Amino acid sequence: MSITEAVIIFVSAFVAGTINSIAGGGTLLTFPALIWIGLDPKMANATSTVALWPGLLGGAWGYRREMQNSRAHLVRLGIPSVIGGAVGGAILIATPTETFARLVPYLILSATALFILQGSINRRFRLQSAAESPTPRWWTVAMIFQFFSAIYGGYFGAGNGIVMLSVLGLLGVADIHRANGIKTFLGACLNSAAVVGFIVSNLVHWPEAILMSIAALLGGYTSTHVARRLGRVFVRRTVIVIGLSIGLLMLWRMNS
After folding, report:
1. Within 13 Å and on the Cβ side, how many CA atoms surround 76?
2. In terms of pTM, does the model score above 0.85?
3. Which domain holds residue 240?
4. Sign (positive/negative) of CA torsion 163, 171, 92, 46?
5. Closest C-alpha to 165, from 117, 203, 231, 222
6. For the chain, what is the domain count?
7. Helix, strand, or coil here: 231?
8. Burial per residue of 12-22, b for 16 or more beta-carbon CB atoms within 10 angstroms, e otherwise
9. First-residue to last-residue Cα distance in the chain
């Protein structure tokens, strides 16, 4: 790894850690960077997941104030996140990524559309009121949604943060900073299971992973302070721009 390559992957991981804490989609920066320095796609995906995991922990710690009243969400959605992340990681280990990767841009664009429409959907079905006084049925639906989201995230996490933000919004978590904190914690949960599988399967290229993990941790922690200063409206718009940009870029690359 040359100095130029080290600088590129460090910067990509720092920005990815920042993006993951605000919206999600940081994998779309680190994955191509690792491909560019010569890693095969499967190893690049696994190395990227391991490298960005510390950044999710840093982001979750940075949002600890916003998550003070979210213990039930963290526990009940964290469990299916760990299980789903393990399933997704196992699928990646056992199968090639090409077929599933073709679905990714459509999934990201769909999730972004849900994020844009979640306010109207919440008002139409009174989902926010349901989230304030959740019933057993509400929790069952939420846990099922998060389980399948975690499978996707464990397999190929690009844009999974936007998927989780959309799910949380549809479930009535209206505060974008609180939703970001919960999303970041759940991302750390689901990736922890996938990370173990990737390490055991020797899919991680450690020199790049260690360097990128330091950068991602710094980016994840500092981004929470930036998000608070910019305000909720700006963060919501940033999520939408990132989601549309990533989805359209991946769709263009897939068809080019």
Report:
1. 16
2. no
3. 3-255
4. positive
5. 117
6. 1
7. coil
8. bbbbbbbbbbb
9. 29
